[in-house]
Amino acid sequence: MHIAFFINDLEREHAGYTTTVLAHQAQLRGHRVSYLTPHDFILRADDSLCAHTRSLPKKKYKDSEDFFATLKSDKCKVEPVDMATIDVLMLRNDPSIDAETPWAMEAGILFGREAAKRGVIVLNDPDSLGRAINKLYFQSFPTEARAETLISRHATDIKAFAKQHGGNIILKPLQGSGGSGVFKVDAEAKSNLNQIIEAIGRDGYIIAQSYVPAAKKGDIRLFLMNGRPLEIDGKYAALRRVASPDDIRSNIHAGGTAEAVEIGKTELAVAEMIRPKLVADGMFLVGVDIVGDKILEVNVFSPGNLGSCSRLAGVDFSVPIIEAIERKVSIAAQYARRFDNRHLAIL
């Protein structure tokens, strides 16, 4: 199997990132692994789709650090490759990172669609990712599963929403990730509400969410694969993210810490409630952030912390993920690609 990982750029990758973990596991299982970025696609005059890919040498790597060091070295072969020869394209970029270069934000989606037309299995499904490129996708899940939300650029709307919820709300940009631009409004921050609205509103629409008190204990990142919680022998790919004392954001990149967590009936019920939508949209691998019985985020582009989940649980969750991808390639071959990409993505 030849699997290509689409990322924002190599400079912002890291040896501990989920993409590296998955790519390394694929290589360990004997597969050819390549990386590509928004700069790399070529649609030729004969309508063939190619890409300048960075392919890792087939050899035994000591660990993911060695694998990643080789990826960034001149030992990698960079050459144009016909996308039709690639079995799987895994879209692992974060579009919000490329907000200042709009052409790059949707490159993976646009060329992912073209790759799917040429028989490449694209994960997650690019058509559905196109609808999920901002947090408005979150509103398509059942109201019972998500915190009450208002989306507006008008200060009067947001202030009315805050009053309705006793002054305790969360404000964040419609587009963004990693906890960037997230503010908690309460009695102490009330006097700064105008400035917060103005600061977030400069970049577009504002999301106002009711504050869920259980958030004081942090949120739970839970991985879902093929619509169901990812697990190995009863151990779930999950962790609790706890914010630092001086920050409301529990994102690891924003200073939060990771702790082991038990997944119980509440979290499984939330996962089951959102499963039909994820399956219908061909969302193969998703990271869901849960507080109490509510989802706060659904990361369908580049869910992270898989390595931390594996370390805390004492199992390697990258194995069943690559096994599931191998199974999709096998199904596609057995059925002569009679399934469309959206269905194949979650089989």
TrEMBL record:
Q: Which InterPro entries match?
A: ATP-grasp, ATP_grasp_subdomain_1, Glut_synth_pro, GSHS_ATP-bd, GSHS_N, PreATP-grasp_dom_sf
The entry lists its GO molecular-function terms as:
ATP binding; glutathione synthase activity; metal ion binding
User: In the UniProt record, does the keyword Nucleotide-binding occur?
Assistant: yes
Instruction: Identify which cofactors the protein needs according to its UniProt entry.
Output: Mg(2+); Mn(2+)
Top EC class, one word: ligase
**Which family does the similarity line name?**
Belongs to the prokaryotic GSH synthase family.
Q: What is this protein called?
A: Glutathione synthetase
